[in-house]
Write a structure and sequence with these properties.
7-stranded mixed β-sheet; 20 helices; alpha/beta
Length: 488
């Protein structure tokens, strides 16, 4: 065979080299001789193909010269692709403009309306004491901070607010974020990386969904508030860990839930979650963005509402943008856990810190909540009134808890398509504006949501409303719903 003869020739040529090198060449020749014929044939074929490709001419496209008339015709016929889809331009019509401050009554497109849409649960947004605190801070510190916390963006008022939040929540430490969305979206990735496992409720907010994406962890979604389904997933993970104990030692596992769910208006079964935490050795991250300042006798959230120990929660996520009437977010818990975010959370490390006037406003809001607990009592009462009155409306269902200030109502008719449901709910909102009541349809970015959500109207109770105002507003809603649904 040609290859064998070639190798023998090489052996002959190099017979005078040093003994060690000659021995290596001999070993290679013997290995080739013992190789199967098809193996040698394949290698020779491969070498031939490589040589052919190396010396062959590259492929060249023959360019056809166009006349000036042909060029002009192509240019006139060319239509550029739009920068954004056409349907995006219609989304602006869904946004209604508020003229003036967010109070109990707001001006929407020139109409004075009872606010059943915003998250100003305690009515602190325009409290004079908070405004005065913001003005004092503005005169002392200026408008912005002009730098991240680690680069001369830490101002003393930030430290005071972190300490105040930690004292209010009865934990060791808190950390501030300059944007409410940034807190949940940034605080998961520092603790859960690629290869770790997150067990998340299907109804978690969009911010938490983005936090899961940013972490690059494996995600196991369980049915909303279904603890049997969660335990099934935890058992499956435990079996996987037994098969690969070496990997299990370095795999972190956490449960991601909300105290009060924005998308449903109900609370998580936290007591059972804590039980599963210790049974399967996982951690719990609890988003209380909508339950702090709402649930519990003093507004400390779902742990106080259910009478549970807050130390059983590994990390609590909160917002300054709802009950506290400011801007920003925070997380709190043990100092060991929270401090890790100061070097690992992108929303903390790279964003300009919270403007000092907003930090001062949040401090004053916490002080007011602690000194005026009757606000929380009024909010709890009004939440029950809102739920009771909504339950009287025919042809819709109310899925939310009676003690939640966030109430969702959905059309019962399952024959409606998503487009039909959206059109009906928007018609209800438009007509209610004429009746002097501001409502909103729960919005979502459908192409980015993990799960498709049923369209609903979202209503919110406020502490500064009277029972009579709520009853009259829902009576108007009942008439509008019956009128619109009867026309179909």
């Amino acid at each position: 065979m040609f290859v064998i003869l070639l190798l023998n020739l090489i052996h002959f040529v190099y017979c005078d080299v040093r003994e060690e090198e000659s021995w290596i060449v001999s070993e290679l020749i013997d290995a080739v001789k013992e190789a199967p014929t098809y193996h040698v044939f394949f290698e020779v074929l491969l070498v031939a193909v490589v040589i052919k490709l190396w010396f062959s001419n590259s492929y060249r496209i023959e360019r056809q010269e166009l006349t000036e008339q042909e060029e002009d015709q192509l240019i006139s016929e060319w239509q550029p692709e739009p920068l954004v889809p056409d349907e995006v331009s219609t989304r602006s019509k869904l946004y209604r403009t508020v003229n003036g401050p967010i109070k109990k009554y707001i001006s929407v497109d020139g109409n004075s309306c009872l606010d059943l849409a915003s998250f100003n649960f305690l009515g602190l947004n325009c409290d004079e004491r908070i405004e005065e605190s913001a003005i004092r801070s503005l005169r002392k510190y200026g408008v912005g901070s002009c730098g991240p916390r680690g680069f001369y963006g830490t101002i003393d008022v930030h430290l005071h607010l972190e300490q105040r939040i930690a004292e209010f929540m009865r934990v060791e430490e808190a950390i501030l974020y300059s944007f409410g969305f940034a807190a949940p979206a940034s605080c998961v990735a520092p603790y859960s990386k690629r290869g770790d496992v997150i067990f998340a409720d299907e109804a978690v907010s969009f911010a938490l969904q983005q936090a899961i994406v940013a972490s690059r962890s494996k995600v196991r979604y369980f049915k909303h508030n279904d603890m049997d389904d969660l335990e099934r997933l935890l058992k499956k993970q435990a079996l996987d860990d037994q098969k690969n104990p070496k990997k299990a030692k370095v795999t972190r596992r956490l449960i991601l839930v909300e105290g009060l769910y924005l998308n449903t208006g109900d609370i998580c079964p936290l007591e059972k979650l804590i039980e599963l935490k210790y049974a399967y050795k996982v951690r719990i991250f609890l988003d209380e963005s909508y339950s702090i300042g709402v649930l519990g006798e003093t507004g400390r959230g779902i742990t106080e509402f259910l009478g549970l120990d807050i130390l059983d929660i590994d990390l609590i996520i909160g917002s300054l943008e709802n009950s506290l009437g400011s801007i920003g977010g925070f997380t709190c818990g043990s100092a060991y856990v929270v401090d890790h975010q100061r070097l690992s959370a992108v929303g903390y490390c790279y964003s300009a810190s919270l403007p000092p006037l907003l930090a001062s406003s949040a401090i004053e809001s916490v002080n007011i909540i602690q000194s005026e607990l009757d606000m929380l009592e009024r909010l709890h009462h009004n939440s029950g009134v809102l739920h009771r009155e909504l339950s009287k409306i025919d042809k819709v269902c109310v899925d939310s808890c009676s003690y939640s200030p966030i109430q969702h109502i959905r059309i019962n008719d399952i024959t409606n398509t998503r487009e039909q449901s959206e059109r009906l709910l928007n018609s209800i909102c438009d007509q209610m504006l004429g009746e002097g009541v501001a409502l909103t349809m729960a919005q979502c970015i459908e192409e980015y949501e993990t799960f498709q959500r049923t369209h609903s109207l979202r209503l919110t109770a406020k502490a500064n409303m009277t029972e009579d105002e709520i009853v009259k507003a829902i009576a108007k809603l009942r008439c509008v719903v019956n009128e619109i649904l009867s026309k179909r």
